Amino acid sequence: VQLQASGGGLVQAGGSLRLSCAASGFNVNAVEMSWYRQPPGKARTWVGTVSPGGETDYAGSLKGRFTISIDNAKNTMYLQMDRLEPEDTALYYCKPHKYDAWGQGTLVTVSS
After folding, report:
1. Is-contact 97 1, C-beta < 8 A?
2. At the N or C end, where does the chain have fewer CB atoms within 10 A?
3. What Cα–Cα distance (Å) separates residue 18 from each residue in 67, 73, 80?
């Protein structure tokens, strides 16, 4: 099981980014998949989850700004982040619930 998160970068407040999580060794549409984030100097927190049936759930403060989706053909999960705020600055990780695998994370920096 391997995960490759990508798509992070520097963006101004109010902008958008789309993160990708490419998986190998399992099918992303067969397990629950989640995004987490860890701001500098703070603990890792849950961002959102997509179920095998396509249902999504998000941390309360992120609802309406963040959207998780799956591309079965590419075996990849995405995190679309809109109206970004400086408080969204963090390392973003993806993780399948079934496996103890985190990947290296991708850094998102939002400038004010």
Report:
1. no
2. C
3. 9, 18, 4
